[in-house]
Amino acid sequence: MFELHRPRLRLIAASLVVLALAMASSAGCGSEERNVTIVEPAQGATINVGDVKVVVDVKKFNIVDKLDQNAEDGEGHVHFYIDVGEIPTKDGEPAVTKEGTYHAQATTEYVWPDVKAGEHTFAVQLVNNDHTPLKPPVIAQVTVEVKAAGGGTAPASSPTRSPGASPGGTSSPTGGTSSPTGGTATPTPARPGGTSPAGTGASATATPTRPTPTATP
User: Fold this and answer.
1) Of 202, 175, 178, the residue nearest 188 (C-alpha)
2) What is the pTM of this model?
3) Rounded CA gap, 82 and 102, in Å?
4) What is the pLDDT of residues 103-132, one digit of tens each?
5) Which run of H or E residues covers position 25?
6) Domains (ranges, CATH) in the chain?
């Protein structure tokens, strides 16, 4: 009885082996799905103001220069976005935003011109030839800090010497005449209606004269 069923068992076993190999092959082909990754700039990077280049890596999707043509499965181009908030992914509608915030490009890189200082979010999306999103949408984004170049402080100014200042930075006294010994002579006020008496030496003073009495004969 057992011998009669052996050929059938072998046939079933062989069928199971073939099925298992087919499933494994199918799983291997579908293990890597469509994907896009931003490789430049890096998430959280700090970069200088000016032109910013965004570079992407695309898998399982052909980038072709067929913008505005009919959609064909497995091919299309890249939409680059800057600071759009919400990326448009509505099925059947072009994944575009307002002018100046997106760019359609049939390459894997794009340079945003004249990016100002501040926090900015760069995003990308794989789209069909007619600009509609894929099913499901394939998106990537990074947020970076853009800073002004340089950032150094202005050099400290050299001290300015005041007019009449000595080399050591101390101003010389003004308003008097320096004496030979380094002191300051104090001017003697003139007497009303006359001239100052001549003196002997630097500090001489005038001696008053008494009238001489006259003898009476």
Assistant:
1) 202
2) 0.57
3) 6
4) 999 999 999 999 999 999 999 999 999 999
5) helix 2-29
6) 35-147 (2.60.40.10)
